[in-house]
Amino acid sequence: MELRNLYALLFDKHISYKQFIVLRRRIRKSKALEEDAWKEEAFELDRYSEKECRFYFRFKREHLDQLLNVLRFPKVVKTSSKDSASGIEALCIVLRRLTYPNRWMELRKMFGRSQGCLLGCSTPLYGSSTSLLLCYERGTING
User: Fold this and answer.
1) Cα gap 39→42, rounded to integer Å
2) DSSP 71
């Protein structure tokens, strides 16, 4: 059912205002979910140019692999809800959050994961973010 049909039903008094509100919320929610579903794609670092990597993650693509080794990030990050992500993806999630304070909903579109999964993948790695900043400042990794 489309919103205009719903408004017509309300105008013709075939449904009550309360029914209208409930149905309108359902329609809007389902449309929002449909829109988000087609926008979400799995994260692939190869899709980002060198310039975009510097902009989004503050490091060159080649240095992201070095960071994984220096910070001893796991190759696969698993959450308590049985979701898993590659180490490079989890690192990019953390770096993106450190670069700019995004909302989880915004990151959801970039990484193609649910908000809970994004949070679960990145939370265990935030302890290493202090090491990350030290590596950057000491020049261990040239960003």
Assistant:
1) 10
2) T
In this structure, what DSSP letter does residue 105 have?
Answer: H
> At 131, is the secondary structure helix, strand, or coil?
helix
Q: How far apart are the first and last CA of the chain?
A: 52
b/e map 28-57, b = 16+ CB within 10 Å: eeeeeeeeeeeeeeebebeebeeeebbebb
Each residue's pLDDT expressed in tens, for the chain with a length of 143 residues? 677 777 788 788 888 888 888 888 888 777 665 555 445 578 889 999 999 999 999 889 888 888 888 888 888 888 888 888 888 998 898 889 888 888 887 888 888 888 888 888 877 776 655 555 555 555 555 54
Residue 84 has a CB neighbour count (10 Å cut-off) of: 14
Reference 85, options 127, 142, 123; nearest CA is: 123
Q: From CA 55, how far away is CA 60, in angstroms rounded?
A: 9
Bridge-based pairing state of the strands 76-78 and 84-86:
antiparallel
pTM, to two decimals: 0.63
**Contact at 8 Å (CB) between 64 and 91?**
yes
